[in-house]
């Protein structure tokens, strides 16, 4: 922080105090809330859509609009995840595990308030991290190679053991289905088509959001249509939650919130990861440290806390490599680089020194964006919760129509609609056969990271597999993987043996 002068701080405060800048933050927060909550419309697509608008703006005003979308868009995906078990973003799929269970128990308002306040906690933590140790964290992340990235992705895959609360074998099988789906398209090294079946629309692979909409939204609607199913029961009357009560829950789980914020911020620093990986790893860590009375997967508030804190902690973390090294941490920050270049601002090691007032403005805008996210979320949650009172006969076709329209809007391609329906059928069959769908989404997200970094690491080391065990960070990650397997496999084996001694 010695690079920032007092004049930079005062100029940054003056820039953010402009009424027009505050207005742009508010407008961006509303846009991000809408795009994040609508299946198929995400924060990256919203920022890409509104990027041309910033041509006529100054640097502070353009950052105000885009950062408002950034923060609210990452949170808003939890709204449909909690209310109708349809995650608006890949990162909110983990929130749906306990959030929707809380809604089925009449606690949707409590889950929404928890998600809102925890998102603010995560965003505030990452902001403080960006303010204090941005250059240091960026240097650490820059030292990582493909070996470390593969090891971290492998830890994420093993976290499937914690996500699947039934048979871990089925959970791992679902993750492998997701990994297999991630290999569809052109080989990233040789350019050879894989599993395309002569369909040119699959050359770029299967978009994560398409698979997400199908596995969750369409599959859930198919379950609601099933005659004689418990899934067709209308959700009970929802109890109004007290914000003081929720704050007390967060305080009682402050250590879990701190760990989740740390995980989210650190993962945000790593380029190419993003909030989906952070949410799953935080949820898995919460499962690992679960107490006997916890009901993960059945409406445990700790599950919502861990996912939402980590989810929004990525926002500040991803800005660390962007502002200090010029390397985007996720798809959104990749678009933000373009927005800054439009204004003639070049990110990198000299940004803070040459544009200290802009750096201060970005820090303040992140804080204001998180405040608006809380204000809009709390005031609009009653309107959002009204979706639970819609009869299934109206809600099912409406959600299906929105889901297919969202799928079409991603690439304006009717093939994506067919792809959504295919994944909807796959998700429906998985649920009917007892396979969890959440690990499949995790496999799709982590599959490309696993493959690319495994091949890069082996190519550089002349196919020497020992390279994964000779680097300290990757070795530590493999030891963590082994520890997680031991912690999850041994108790399950004993429990299963106790229930069925006959084997």
Describe what is shown at a glance.
This protein is an all-alpha fold and 503 residues long. It is 73% helix and 1% strand. A hairpin with a 6-residue loop joins strand 1 and strand 2.
Description:
- The protein is an all-alpha fold and 503 residues long.
- The protein has one domain.
- Helices cover 73% and strands 1% of the residues.
- The chain contains 23 helices and two strands.
- The protein has helices at 6-16, 19-37, 43-50, 59-76, 78-84, 93-104, 108-142, 146-158, 160-163, 168-182, 208-225, 243-252, 254-269, 275-288, 301-325, 331-342, 351-354, 356-385, 392-411, 414-432, 438-460, 467-470, 472-499; strands at 185-186, 193-194.
- A two-stranded antiparallel ribbon has the order 1-2.
- Helix 7 runs antiparallel to helix 18, helix 8 (146-158) packs parallel to helix 23 (472-499) and helix 13 runs antiparallel to helix 14 (275-288).
- The chain is globular and about 65 Å long.
- The protein starts with 5 loop residues before the first helix and ends with a helix.
- The model is unreliable at 227-233 and 491-503 (pLDDT under 50).
